[in-house]
Amino acid sequence: MGAPNKKGLDYFPKMVDFYDDDKIFDLMDEYGPLGVVVYEVILTIVYAQGYYLEISEDKLSRMVIRRIGNKWVRNQKAVVQVIHRCAELGLFDERLLGQGVITSEGIQRRYYEIAVKRMKRQLYSDKYWLLKKNEDGEPLLNAPKNQLSSEENGINSEETPLSSPGSPMKIKENKKRIYTPFPNPELEKLFQQFLTVQERSGRKIYPEQQQALRRQLENYGENDQERIYIVNRAIAGGWKNFWPAPRAIPRKNNFNNFHQREYDFDELEKQLLNS
């Protein structure tokens, strides 16, 4: 008798431009390399089981720490923070995460391409299946024009799905993406100018990315005058992100298990302007 049909994968692809994806950039910027390592470790755990994983956050975080080593991450709550941030960025499905399930459209797309199309394995069921199907019951795998380069490669935004040519664009509202403007009108006006510059440069800033930028700016500035300086500097330099003002130390955040990164900001600013 042959071996039973295995649901899990032995491997999964990683794009060479993985770190150019804005979602991975934001994850790296907020939590450092360890944040991306946590995400990748979770992918290996999920793919070993199939296209989804039913597990509690407590158990999953302990599994991640066991694989990384508690020498590098001793605070279990820190791993849970990264898991939730991945869901906010769209790397995991946020609704299913609330039900104790780890999966996403990107995870399912890769699983289908490898396990079903290449290895002729069966999906067993449509449980937690997120991909839409065509008339033949096959998942729609075609990537839109504005595809991403990370594990979510080929996934369009769930908040703003593209419609077919000639038809109006439909926008799915999500009340969770509402942000609070800065109390300082001058700071809010500059922040909106920063977003305008980004869009004119061809970089779409999604609501969850705006939230991350607002949190980042609050941490980098001790007061509104420093934050205004930081935004002005980012606009003038055409930067995609904010950097602390020289000699400014970011305020202590809830992710206390990691050491804050230290930079020579004067030298960094010269390099960015020269580039």
TrEMBL record:
Keywords: Membrane, Transmembrane, Transmembrane helix. Residues 11-107 form the Lin1244/Lin1753-like N-terminal domain. It holds the Pfam family Lin1244_N. Residues 141-170 are annotated as: Disordered. Residues 144-166 have a biased composition (Polar residues). The chain crosses the membrane at residues 31-53. The keyword Coiled coil does not apply. PANTHER family: PRIMOSOME, DNAD SUBUNIT. This is DUF4373 domain-containing protein. It comes from Candidatus Limivivens intestinipullorum.
